[in-house]
Amino acid sequence: MSPKTHTNFLAAFEPNQVYESLTEGRITSDVFQAGDLVLPSGRIIACDPGWLWCKDVDPFTRTVPPGRYPVLLSVVDSGRTACAMVKFCSESPVRWEMALRPGEDLTELIRNQFFGYGVDAGMGCFVDAQVVERRSDEELQGLVDRACEQMFQLQGWLADQDLVTQLTYPSQQIIDPSGFNLTLDPDMYTFNLTLDPDTGANAIAFGSGDGDGSYASYWGFTADDELACLVTDFRVLLEYITQNIEIESVMRFLEKSIEHPDLERLEMAIRLSVHRPSWVQLSDDSLNDQPSNPDCIVVLEGQGRQPWSVNLEPGGRFSGCPMMMVSEWIEEDRWYKEYWFNEPLQANAVLKIALNSEVYPLQPVTTNA
C-alpha cells in the first residue's frame, strides 16, 4: 500500500497543526474528544449511521478487547472532520494497515484504491456489532433518525443566538423514560447515542469531511505490534494534484485506442467508439431517448484511472451542440462513459479530460501555538 494513500495521522492528531495546501491555502487542525465508545464485543463497525438499520455493513475482521475507548476527532478550521480515531492505548502507532471486512483483499487494489464505506448522509460513526445485531431494523432507524433530528434542531437554534451563547452553551444530554439517551456537543457536528442501556454500548457519529463519498479506515500498530488505534480518514488533509489532458481532432482515434503521451505516462488506456462495450448492460428505459443516428453516440471505454471530468467539444459549426452523459459504469479496473449529441461529432472535435494524477498527505509546516 502506497504511503501516499492516506492522511498523516500522527500529525492530524496533534493539537494546533498548520498546513499549506496548494489548492486551499492555509489549513489549521485541532483535536477534540467526542466521548467514549463502549464495545461489549470488540467487533467494530464503521459506517454511515443512516445505514445501521439495514444491517448491511459488516464489522472489521480484526477485533479488539471489549472495553471503553475514547474517540478523538481531528477537525480543520472550516469545521470539517478530517479524521476520527478510536484510541486503544497511550502509545503512538508506528505503522498503519487498512482495516478490512470479510471478503476484502488488499492484493486486489491498485494505485491509490482503497476499501471503505459509503456515506450519503454526511456522517460516519463507530459502533459495536453486537448492539446492532440485537436491535431491530425499526428500532435502529428510529433512534438514529431521532438523534439526527435533535442534533439539527440544536445547531439551528444556536445559529440564531448571540456569539456569547454560541461559545458558552454546554453539552446537552437528552434522556427520556423510553430509554432514549443522547449527548450532543454544541460545538461539533457529532452525537453520542446509547443503543443498549444494559451495557452502555453506543454509537458515536461525526461529520464526514467534505460530506458524501467513500472513506477508508486504518489500524495503527505500536512498535511492539500491539493495536494502538483505529482511524477513519475523511481525506481532508490530502493534496490532490490535478492533471488536465486535451486531445485535438480526437475522432481520428474512432474505434481504436487514443494515443497521447500523458495517457501512457499515467498508465491509462482509453478507446473511442460509437459502440457500447459488451460487458455493459443498460436498461430499456435508459435507452428510450437514444439518438436515431449512431454517429451522435460516443463511448469512452477505459482501463486504469478514471477521469473525474470529461468534456467533448463537437467542433465545426456544431461547437455549441449540447452533450449529455447518458450512463457510466465502473467494473474493477475498467470503466465506460457514454455521451449523446444532437449532431455528429466533427473531425476536429476536442476531448478534454481532468483527473487526479497524484494524491499526497499534507505535512504540517508549524504548530499554531
What does this structure look like?
Helix content is 12%, strand content 42%. The protein has 5 helices and 23 strands. Strands 1, 2, 4, 5, 6, 7, 13, 14 and 23 form a 9-stranded antiparallel β-sheet that branches. The model has no long low-confidence stretch (mean pLDDT 89).
For the structure shown, list the relevant keywords.
369 residues; nine-stranded antiparallel sheet; six-stranded antiparallel sheet
Secondary structure blueprint with pairings:
Layout (H helix, E strand, L loop, with lengths): L8 H4 L4 E5 L3 E15 L4 E4 L19 E10 L4 E7 L7 E4 L17 E4 L3 E6 H6 L2 H23 L3 H6 L3 E4 L5 E4 L5 E7 L4 E7 L5 E9 L5 E7 L4 E10 L8 E2 L3 H5 L3 E5 L23 E7 L5 E5 L9 E9 L2 E8 L8 E12 L2 E4 L2
Antiparallel strand pairs: 1-2, 1-23, 2-4, 3-8, 4-5, 5-14, 6-13, 7-13, 8-12, 9-10, 10-11, 11-12, 13-14, 15-22, 16-17, 17-18, 18-21, 19-22, 20-21
Mean pLDDT: 89
Major sheet attributes = 9 strands, antiparallel
Total of DSSP H or I helical runs spanning 4+ residues: 5
- Structural class category: mainly beta
Q: How many DSSP-defined strands?
A: 23
Report low-confidence residues grouped into runs of 5 or more.
Answer: none
Q: Any idea what the shape is?
A: elongated
Helical residues, percent: 10-25%
Oligomer: single chain
**N- to C-terminal separation?**
34 Å
Helix/strand order, N-terminal first: HEEEEEEEEHHHEEEEEEEEHEEEEEEE
Assess the beta-strand content as a share of residues.
35-45%
What integer value in Å does the Rg equal? 24 Å
Give a concise summary:
The chain is mainly β and 369 residues long. It has helices at residues 9-12, 129-134, 137-159, 163-168, 261-265, and strands at residues 17-21, 25-39, 44-47, 67-76, 81-87, 95-98, 116-119, 123-128, 172-175, 181-184, 190-196, 201-207, 213-221, 227-233, 238-247, 256-257, 269-273, 297-303, 309-313, 323-331, 334-341, 350-361, 364-367.
